[in-house]
Each structure stands twice: as structure tokens, then as C-alpha cells.
Structures
1.
Amino acid sequence: MITVQSTINASIEKVWELWTAPEHVMKWNNASEDWHTPFAENDLKVGGKFKYTMASKDGTMRFDFEGIYTNVVDYSLIEYEMADGRKVKIVFEKDAKGIKVIESFDPETENSEEMQKNGWQAILDNFKKYVENATP
């Protein structure tokens, strides 16, 4: 398992809403400025599915990131299995500085674990920036 985390200075309600609402996911779900998420759908419940299309802004690359939820505890936990069978666990916990988001995921075999960790951390960092700069 690979784990990334960040502490976000916002309420749990705001963090949860911006993490799960497709219209917000489309605004923060990228690891760098030359990528974006032009499509997102999310049925946040056990057995529900999500699908995000991630694409390079120059149009040369795109892929779908999708999975099925296996556990959802509002404002606390999201677990899902990706289309390729890998598992992901996201924990949301309050601490003195805000909401700590801890993501753990099974690595894939095409890219190094360091590259995967850096990519997922970059997306999480982008989420933190988006939440902390979004109006309530």
C-alpha cells in the first residue's frame, strides 16, 4: 500500500462536499496544470460507481479513473475498488489544524511506487489548495 496525506484548513462538511461532488472534482482532480478532469460522475454509496475522465489539456492523452464503492461512512471514510481490482481507502479525521485526509492505495505495476505516490500527493495537494481557496 502507498499512503499520501494532507491536512486541510476547512470544516469536515466543506472537505467532504468538495471531495465528493462531481462539479468540484472536475476543478481539482489533476496532478499538474497541463491536465484536467473534463467529466466526473459519482454515486457515493456502497455499490455505487464513480468515473472521472482525466485528460491532458493539449488533447494528446486521456484515461478514465473509475471504481465501485465498498464502504462509505459520511464525513469519515470512503473505500472503493478500482476497475483493475486495486483497493483504495480514504480516511477523513479532525485534528487541531483542520481535516486530515489520508489516502492509501494499492500500487499498479506500470509505474514506480515513487512516481505513483508523487502523482497522488500532487492531486491531494491540489485538492487542499482548491478547498482552502474556495468560498464556503
2.
Amino acid sequence: MTNGNDAMARLSAIRLGLVAILFLPGEPFTQIAYEIEQNSPFNQTIIVAYAENNIGYIPTALALQQGGYEVGPGKWSFLEAGAENILIAEALQLLKELYTN
């Protein structure tokens, strides 16, 4: 179920042999992209930011605790704690499905 405060995000990916290109909305912090790359089933995973749509910065839990303009709240970042885990889980599920099909 969604509400007016939800950030709707599309993720997509394409496969080129043993390489995957993953398109993420917004700008994930480096640690998030690295975790996806390290846990991807592909030999190489390329992450493209600001693809599909834009949900602003995607900060880590640590970054949210530390604060700063990248974590908002504001028009550039409005995600709450836990958003990184959802994004990582969904990205890895998409990559797994792409790899096995």
C-alpha cells in the first residue's frame, strides 16, 4: 500500500553476457552501490544513477545518523532510514532473476 509520502522508484537492468547494467533512481551513496556490486551474481555489474526517475540522494544508515545536506530532509533527499535496505534487496533480486533467466 502506498501513501502520499512514499517515494516511488523504478529499477531496471539489462544483461550483456556476464555483465549487468543496473539502472537506479536517484544517487545512491557509494557504499550502497558497492554492496550491490559485491553481491551481484554477475562477473561485473555497472550501476547507473539517476536513471528511470529521481528519488534524490539514497543515503546509508550511518550517513543519516551523521547528518548533512545529502540526507535532508529537503527536495534533494527525503528518504527515511531503511530505504537503502529496500533498494539493495530489490536490486539484488532483480539481478538474480536476470541472471537465472
